[in-house]
Amino acid sequence: MSKRDRTAARTTPYSPSPHGLALLRDPLLNKGTAFTDEERDALGLRGFLPPAVLSMQAQVERVLTHLRGLPSDLEKYIALNALHDRNEALFFRVVCDHIDEIQPLIYTPTVGLACQRFGLIFQRPRGLFISAKERGHVAEILSNWPYPAKLIVVTDGERILGLGDLGAYGMGIPVGKLSLYSACAGIHPKLCLPVTLDVGTNNEELLNDPYYIGLRQRRVTGTDYDDFVDEFVTAARETFPGVLIQFEDFANHSAFRLLHKYRDDACVFNDDIQGTAAVALAGLFSALRVTGGKLNEQRLLFLGAGEAATGIAELVVSAMVAEGASEAEALRRNWLVDSRGLVVKGRPGLTEHKLRFAHEQAPISDFLTAIRTLKPTAIIGVAAVGGAFTPDVLRTMARLNERPIIFALSNPTSKSECSAAEAYRHTEGRALFACGSPFDAVQLDGKTFIPRQGNNSYIFPGVGLGAIGSASRLVTDEMFMAAAHALANSVSEADLQQGSLYPALPRIREVSAQIGAAVAGVAYQRGLAGGPTPNDLVGFVQTQMYDPSY
Ligand code: NAD
């Protein structure tokens, strides 16, 4: 097939009305036992289905009853994945209507275990595996994809969650993330393409795993790696004009470089850096709604200086500048502590992304001394060091601030800097607390606190919706700031009263529409969008949201 034919095949309405068994095996069209008698006659389905006709609602209940009876989260993940492969509308109906229950099964934490066992539980392939062996042919492989992709989530599997290098097993992450895009922001599954760039793995266990499905070689590095990624980005933009590419779970040394290389020319973002930043900034905005303070009056001390910390600090700086601070003032209000102590000017061996936050200051090796010296209004834990916010740290923050802002964002739970109960107890219930891991409600002195997770899934679906909906050419920091404001504004007074700095997750589609509108608004304002500005931005993005039904 010529390139033009392949493009035409992808952009014409999908398939000439599949029929009979082919229809039942097409997950985008299959309704299973919900096909009516009339449809069964008209579509050649007689005999392929048992006689009962179930409504979608009955199917949802059946799926949940079955799921709840399964003995482990991994088995639930496998069952949900099989449903996804069989009947997408039903899968997404289940996810949308039970997001609190299902999100942890199709994304973190269960997806981590699923990635580790990916070779063993692998059933039907989803998305595209593009290996370094196929260099020079990436465009052809992308052309094999039969749908008009508008959103690609791509990983090279080198830093999967906190689990490190999982090579091709990392594919579970783009798949899970794109499910959340469809469920939380209604981006049609047909527009979503998960991609693994398989450049090998340095994980010895995988190299010796008989079931390993990836390229059995050490990672390609250096210019060979960069050229391969570049071939992919160029081919993706040519094959799917206007496509949004989200980089996901790349290791530090690639993540910053790739983001900086492409962000000013292509519609790309990195969720680990920018999505995390926006969700944390939204938490700060919510906390400031309680204290009445301004962002550019805050002093932030980060425990950690990696993708999350520097991503958040950079966006906070942009937001402070937007509020009127100079960049130099804004930078000085953000301090980082890494495994070698406070990041200060003159400390040898500082990498590029930390240098901007290296201020004049005598070296300090421990976090508590850094707090006593710098007197932060907020501490943000993103170092994955469990228990690092000790009772002394928390009490010191409570002594320095009427309402100390305490964000323990590391996950999984064992890596959390402190628990919600510790944060409230050691600050006499005055902490404005957000967490990266789920914590139960806390009772203290007759008051009930409901801590909520600063989860990226509040942000990236809405950002994708706004960027795709407005056909934006770029995804800018200003869009992430707008997303953070929209998220913070969707937190109700009742939420704030009970200590919640984020809205309840079941409101996510409504929140994503607000975020999408805010992001699209920036795209139109800055001349980045394709098309005239709609009058009603929220209505405009809502009309583009996929609502799974038959
Ligand atoms: P990363 O590997 O890029 O960075 C980790 C940083 O922690 C490094 O700068 C390292 O020097 C520092 N560090 C390690 N040991 C330390 C110590 N003893 N004291 C001080 N600093 C130390 O990882 P990342 O992507 O930045 O993620 C960090 C953590 O944040 C992870 O637990 C991740 O799960 C979590 N995270 C949470 C969210 C969220 O809740 N929304 C989003 C992203 C990341």
Kindly describe this structure.
This protein has 550 residues and is of the alpha/beta class. It has three domains: 100-266, Rossmann fold (3-Layer(aba) Sandwich), CATH 3.40.50; 274-454, Rossmann fold (3-Layer(aba) Sandwich); 459-542, Rossmann fold, CATH 3.40.50. Helix content is 46%, strand content 9%. It has helices at 3-11, 20-24, 37-42, 56-68, 73-86, 88-97, 99-106, 110-116, 118-121, 138-143, 172-185, 204-207, 222-239, 252-262, 271-291, 307-322, 327-332, 352-355, 367-374, 391-400, 420-425, 460-469, 477-489, 493-497, 508-525, 537-542; strands at 128-131, 151-155, 192-198, 244-247, 268-270, 300-303, 334-338, 341-342, 378-381, 405-408, 432-435, 442-444, 447-449. The strands form three sheets. A six-stranded mixed β-sheet has the order 8-7-6-9-10-11, sandwiched between helices. A hairpin with a 2-residue loop joins β12 (442-444) and β13 (447-449). The radius of gyration is 24 Å and the shape is globular. The two termini are 33 Å apart. Nicotinamide-adenine-dinucleotide binds at residues 162, 252, 272, 276, 279, 303-309, 337-339, 382-385, 409-411, 415, 436, 454-456.
